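Note to self: user wants both folds in one dump. Writing first protein now.
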Amino acid sequence: MNQEFKSGFVSMVGRTNVGKSSIINKLVGEKVAAIANKPQTTRTAIRAIVNRENSQIIFIDTPGIHKPKTKLGNTMIETAFGVISEVDVTLFVIDATSEDIGRGDRIILDKIKESKVKTILIINKIDLVTKEHLAKLIDLYKDEYNFQAVIPVSVMKNKNMEIILDEIESNLKPGPAYYDTEEYTDQTLRQLVEETIREKALRLLDDEVPHGIYVETEKMKLRKTKSNEEIYDVEVTIYCLRDSHKGIIIGKSGNMLKKIGTYARQDLEKMLDTKVNMKIWVKVKEDWLNNENLVKKFKLQ
């Protein structure tokens, strides 16, 4: 007898730098969310799709919970909390090295309690702690909320990742496939380009600079070369907050910008399975973090 097909939306919430985007990318098997060892890497709600034999799971990766200092920061927090009450299941990701329930985790817990949503607790980075420490942390959180499940994982060691999908599927209701089974994200190609370039900037630039940038795809056109090969012509602008940042992004003799572009192009060519011809410009747009019109683009659609 065939099992009834299930589908649903799953939010991924947690403080900054607990590994939410890494978990999503590992579960999907494709790079759909920017990953960098820096806080506030994710700025908007990114949907990633996992197609299984009897289910379709749509993940929504949200910005990490942090103390906002700009309009963009406020928008990111609104997006993260707004998703919790509108999904079928929430994955609450915490860091296994935590000693107790910190302020950020407490705020998220309160939102989960308020929404009464089905929640699975994911404890990431278990490769960094002892079994005794992990057991204490599990007890601490179990006293706070009736989680559907508590799953200790390690993205780095690829441990227990499939268990997450099994547990989510068991908590979904029967439903249709919302997306084509070949799709793994609802991001447009332009958004994938922007996320990929921003991720490289986050990885390569000094701490102060990358969070003051945003990337805009000005042009993306598929054409055929004289030898009949397909190639994407992509033109992108990186906006930053001040001239000194512009100099750092470009680098001596343009070396930093060239490095960002090369790494981004290599990733995109793998994703698109097509050659990419990329041009990147850097422009200054002061205080864009508080520009209402620009910040709108980061709101949950």
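First done. Writing the second protein, which came from a different request thread.
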Amino acid sequence: MTLAVPTSLDDAVRLLDEHPDAMLLAGGTDAMVEINDGHRRPASLVIALNRVSDLRSWRHDADAGTVTIGAGITYTELMEPPLATLLPALAEASRTVGSPQIRNAGTLGGNLGTCSPAGDGLPVLSALDAKVRIVSADGERDASIHDVMLGVKRTSLEPNELIAEITLPVRSGWQGYAKVGVRNAMVIAVASACLAVDETNQSVAIALGSVGPTVIRCTEAEQHLASAVDWDTGVVDHDAIGRVGELVSAASSPITDHRSTAEYRRHAVGVLARRLARRAFTINGVAA
């Protein structure tokens, strides 16, 4: 096995074009687990991306109302202001990831590249309708997050492409993330949910993790909740919140595995969605 350590995006793209079967290594927090468990063998060439400066920066465009995050930005960086202030749901999701060591090494681009249904950052990217910039020796392209995530650890990236950066809107409303697992910390999500409110457009987005082959958007629940909100006061009827939970559970498509049953996952995402909605709005004039 040969290790290449490019220091520029151009060098990384060139190496990947010459070796499309190479393994891209960002933080390595997913890859090393698979390698240690014997589920994956490193390619003849491993391209380590942690020294590519182009992937390690971010920028806020106040005029456009967006934040663009380099694929190499770590969870620890996402947890701290100003990024945490601009993207609070992503910061909240990042705080639930593993241990401090994992958060110091794991990256948002690696999370998307792995595309596990349990990836903590992915429901947030979905709820915020993220845009992904993908680069290769042939050029670059922009893709919707919904077109990038195809299934269990499957993306639409070609073998010679890599994720350069992810652009997210800075929303005016409340947003949050929640998950459940087999314990309270350092755990893979059994079920997860992100809810993001867009006060400007008077809309709500709800995305689920770990309850389908990839992240699920709950459009029926979103429309129901948005129509039930009094946008002048932020008040929602209690019954509407209950219905949101039912619609979210119905939209999920979980499986039974060694970590949980399908029935529990379906119930859990409904509970998580109701909790997030109660945090986002006032219920019948009483703050939840």
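Dump finished. Worth passing along: The first strand starts at residue 2 and ends at 4.
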